[in-house]
From TrEMBL:
Species this chain originates from: Micromonospora inositola
Co-factor remark: Binds 2 Zn(2+) ions per subunit.
Entry similarity comment: Belongs to the peptidase M20 family.
Residues that, per the record, bind Zn(2+) 1: 80, 91, 186
Name used for this protein in its record: N-carbamoyl-L-amino-acid hydrolase
Top-level taxonomy: Bacteria, Bacillati, Actinomycetota, Actinomycetes, Micromonosporales
Amino acid sequence: MIDLAGRFRALWDELAPVGRDERSGGYLRYALTEPELCLRAWFRDQADRRSMPVQEDGNGNLFAWWGDPAAGDAVLTGSHFDSVPHGGAYDGPLGIVSAFLAVDELRAAGVTPVRPLVVGAFVEEEGARFGVPCLGSRLLTGEIAADRAAVLRDAAGVSFAEALGDRPAGADPALLGRFAAFVELHVEQGRALVEQDAPVAVASAIWPHGRWRFDFHGEGNHAGTTRMADRRDPMLTYAFTVLAANKEARLRDAHATVARVAVEPNATNAIPAKVTGWLDARAAEPATLHGLVEAVRAKAAERAKRDGTELTLTEESATPLVAFDGGLAKRLAALLDAPVLPTGAGHDAGVLAAHLPTAMLFVRNPTGVSHSPAESATDADCAAGVTALAAVLEELACR
Ligand code: GLV
Ligand code: MN
Ligand code: MN
Ligand code: MN
């Protein structure tokens, strides 16, 4: 009999090649593109093998049911398949693979749920293709309107509705109402578990966070003939804003990142006409986050005046502070004898937490790195994650 770590590895190896970029070793698994569609087909196959009927909700989210899909009080577990550009292997898929293995563990132990147990895969969690993170869970819960989601476009101009093959269905209170709890298992995206020498933790909260697009408009002109004093160069305003964001975040013990930029016309010998930078900002407290973004905006606007450029600022997404169900987190931490941690990363669990009792489990990541090919987890820790998830599901769905 192969042990759980071996069974994890065998199932994991089925997914490992899908969407991997040989050059970087990272993953390009954008929502509803070929690699992600392949993983969705894998999901259906895994569900089939376990006689779990699959339901797609009209927003691109998949649910595989152990128990009657028409029944209420179901316990949902799962995560997402999509990745950031050149992302790690574990962010997302670990929660889905672990969910199927937890079902196997319960069945092997002869445990039968008294309420349905559902494995879910949410679409476009990272927002890497259409710009809004947790798009699938936001649609299901009604936190984004179907009309707005339908017209979000990827870099090639394809809309979410076109990628989905239909206009998204939007809020589905009937389906949502059938879930009594959600548990998302996820690779840890920091080093807290390495430092605490523990394989698994329970989440307490998700920092409030969001994405802001800074468009700096200037005057495109010749790099060789335009006197320095005559320039209206938006690259300068952009560069100053990146430094200001870093400084303001450090002052507040918050996080600010500018990791995506678009330059027009993007030519070596032309002063740009426009530079767009995307600010990802996060903080432990909503007021700190608000203060951070406002300070960056004010500094950018002041600098724009100096540079003769113009700034337009657009909030592309905002996620409020999520405090996971405190009673549930305590109960699971006691059950698993695991530490409890907050995180600065966004998750579908954060969206669902506003609608139903929700918990997260984190699995130790030896590098502490995520959203990068260096993200990692050992098979032994992944097995510990499956064991923990099975115990949690038994507690929530089988008693
Ligand atoms: C998603 O993983 C995010 O936190 O950006
Ligand atoms: Mn992620
Ligand atoms: Mn994730
Ligand atoms: Mn995430």
